[in-house]
Amino acid sequence: MAISSSSPSSGDWSSLPSFISCRKSHKTHNLHSFFSIRWTNLRANFQVINSSSCPSPILEDQSSTNLPLIDLKFQQHQTPDAGKLNEVLCELFQDPEKEALGYEQYEKAKKVAEFRPNKSTLEHVTRLVTSCIRARKFKVVRTLLQVFKSDGDVALLALDSAMRGYNELHMYRSTMFVFEEMISAGIGPDSVCYCRIMEAYFRKGDHKKVVELFQELKSRQLDLTPLSIQIQCQSLAKLGKPLEALEIFRSVTKEGVSLDSSKIYSVLISSFASIRDVKVAEELFKEAETKKMLRDPTVFLRLITMYVEEGLLDMTLKVVKAMKGANIRVSDNICCAVVSGFSRKSTLLNAVKVFEDLILMGCEPGQVTYASVLNVYCRLGLYAKAEMVFREMEEKGFDKCVVAYSSMVVMYGKTGRPREAMRLVAKMKERGCKPNVWIYNSLMDMHGRNNNTRQVAKLWSEMKRRKVAPDKVSYTTVIGAYNKAGDFEMCLRFYNEYRIHGGVLDKAMAAMMVGVFSKSGRVDELVKLLRDMKAEGTGLDVRLYRSALNALADSGLEMQVKWLQSSFEVT
Questions:
Q1: Phi first, then psi: what are they for 285, rounded to 5°?
Q2: pLDDT value of position 113
Q3: Across residues 292-301, what is the average pLDDT?
Q4: Contacts of 55 (CB under 8 A, 6+ apart)
Q5: Rounded distance, CA 562 to CA 167, Å?
Q6: With contact defined as beta carbons under 8 Å apart, do 159 and 188 qualify?
Q7: pTM of the prediction?
Q8: 156 Cβ neighbours under 8 A, 6+ residues apart
């Protein structure tokens, strides 16, 4: 890259008053322009193209091709006074058409001994870094930063511009790299640079590093900016140190420091709610509500979760009312948290009542809330209500909720309506919703009760074909169906399959197989089952104990009877 090292002459400075772009000939006669930049140390990643009228090099990224050339035609003027150079350069930078010339003249101005670039000039120079980052010219950015690092006037501003640009693009690792380069080059970061790097680590979730950087910032006795204090408070709260964060927040607030209090209140309330400190969480909530600082729906969800876990269910409705008062939409997750909280911590009837209260308050339940209350209605035996809720879900477009379908299939099974259940599952498949193992278990259970082992076998085959893995309930259900039908061979087949796949013996499976082996006279298998139960710690209730004892006694196995009597405690 050929760059003249001679000092600026009057001919060089004559280019300042005017900037005339050339026209490149095309068949369509389109006008093109390309900004030129003249830098002494930029050799890598650029190509120099000289115009015919003056030796003004054009810098080009390697990725760019077929770029038009520019002729810079200058009029004769005298060299400006050194004191006025900043003013002239800023005028060039402010005009997009003359911006390239401004960069070129800045390099020439640096050779004037009396020239001292002011803040405005430096900001315009470093703006090139931000522009390249936004244009995704990252190779160019790296080259520029290498040049700027050796320029004491520009270095700090350029590196700060790079970190700001990378943060805007969420390229936080690049921000960290620039900060490390700054430290290794011996350039002391200012308060703004510390804010940039703290933000990068905060966004990456490294809250411990944020706290370390804040302590470093204080130790260097730099000014604490509102943003750095805010990030510190949020990081301490995330680290489970909300008391420290609250202390800092109270302290700087008394000093009159202006912070984004909405975000700090949000993270503090959430943090105290997560550790179940009801008193402090409520105080902060009321304080933020008075100042109209509650904007984050997550805060309300954390409070509701806290009240549910603490058994303060009535407070959940007060939180919902506060949301309505702040004109914040009550989401489906929040409605579901309230309903589910009452169903777990109170009674099912209270859960139904609170759902109706939410509707009266103007809340709009979504798919999750509907599925939750549908399950409550089914458990209460309010089947007409459950069907009404399900129809309402379909009308609102919530027709692909597997949980809702599962609840309805279970309900049809309890009410002895297998045909309705099969029709519902068929409709479910048509809508592109895949049945899960719960639905198959319910279908097999209702058909097993009706001794319809043919349909049970069909459903089992469908499960395998759809690659729905059977669980413990699946095996218990299908073995129970064949046991009721008296097909003990199929019972043994599914039991062996269950054990081969690592199935454990619980009381339900043990009870089923004790009955199967006792009825079919398989004493050896019964003895092995009892030994497996003993080894796995599965107990026997009175009914199972008597069934197994009678089977062994009827077979004349006195030793096994004594072993059974000494080995199991009847529960």
A1: -65, -45
A2: 62
A3: 88
A4: 4
A5: 77
A6: no
A7: 0.64
A8: 187, 188, 189, 190, 193
